[in-house]
Amino acid sequence: MAPAVATAKQQAELLKRDGNTCFGKERFGAAIEAYTEAITLCPNVAVYWTNRALCFRKRNEWTRVEEDCRKAIKLDSNSVKGHYMLGLALLQREEYAEGVKKLEKALDLGRGANPKGYMVEEIWQELSKAKYLTWEHSSSQRVWKLQTLKEECEKALEEKISSDVSLQTIGEGSDICSIVGFREQKKLLLQVFSKASEADIPTEVPDHLCCRITFEIFRDPVITPSGFTYERAALLGHLQKVGNFEPITREPLDEQKLVSNLAIKEAVQAYLNEHGWAYRL
After folding, report:
1. For a designed S-S bond to 42, which of 12, 156, 202, 216 qualifies (C-beta 3.0 to 4.6 A apart)?
2. Residue 160: predicted pLDDT
3. Does the predicted model carry a pTM greater than 0.70?
4. pLDDT at 163 over 80
């Protein structure tokens, strides 16, 4: 039995290579056939399923993408591509909450496996896009509700002042006092609604939430022994390409001494939760 199993695995790997070759040439149909044969021989290998899902993604066959990715995740719960493409498939059918969760899972897994890998950046871009679209939809709803409420409040205020003026029976200056009071109350009303809409108005992200290398909002912040915080991928790129020293202090720096800055990470997440427009940056 052992030799037969080994042969099946070898044949499946050859088929996977054929599929990869066809995929590289954008012959997605032929690639799907190769991966399908590999799955038939060795159905418990997650990568065969995710490779086929990638082909279906290229053909916009999102139902098939979802099916293959769910199978891959059952076989390998740490499959970055499985969670990533499943998230994309869920977004396609407008299951935004679940889709975002899968993308976040893929991002965490990707960062753990290879923080500088192309997949991490690609996943972040898709996650940011999904988060921004979710915020944009919610923002539009909030703006509409605030505008409607503001108009109703202004109308009620005008009706109250009009009623008060019509009932005035004392002094010639009563009408003037009412008009002045109306203006003051309306000014206060506008200030209240202006304050309520501030979170949906794009501004500049606070400096302490941005990397000193990329000048962008943190995604995966790490702190060095000297106490400075950087974006992990950017700092690792600096260590590899420029030298093993910290960009600001110029002190020697070993990659192993980097520690996730959980406080900044939580602060960034809290900020993004309140200012979803920042995902677009």
Report:
1. 12
2. 75
3. yes
4. no
CB 239 within 8 A of CB 251: no
* Whether the predicted pLDDT of 179 surpasses 70: no
Residue 176 has pLDDT above 90, yes or no: no
Question: Residue 210 forms beta bridges with which residues?
Answer: 217
- The two structure tokens encoding residue 249: 């202090």
Q: What is the DSSP string of the chain?
A: -HHHHHHHHHHHHHHHHHHHHHHHTT-HHHHHHHHHHHHHH-TT-HHHHHHHHHHHHHTT-HHHHHHHHHHHHHH-TT-HHHHHHHHHHHHHTT-HHHHHHHHHHHHHHHHHH-TTSHHHHHHHHHHHHHHHHHHHHHHHHHHHHHHHHHHHHHHHHHHHHHHHHHH--S-TTHHHHHHHHHHHHHHHHHHHHHHHTGGGS--PPPGGGB-TTT-SB-SSEEE-TTS-EEEHHHHHHHHHHT-SB-TTT--B--GGG-EE-HHHHHHHHHHHHH-GGGGG-
Strand 229-231 to strand 259-260: parallel, antiparallel, or no bridges (unpaired)? unpaired
Q: Is the pLDDT of residue 170 over 50?
A: no
Judge residue 23's burial from the number of C-beta atoms within 10 Å of its C-beta, 0-12 exposed, 13-18 middle, 19 or more buried.
buried
CB atoms within 10 A of CB 125: 10
93-109 burial, b at 16+ Cβ within 10 Å, e below that, comes to: eeeeeebbebbbbbbbb
Q: How far apart are CA 219 and CA 236, in angstroms?
A: 14
Tokens 């799955």 appear where?
A: 39
Contact 126, 105 (CB under 8 A): no
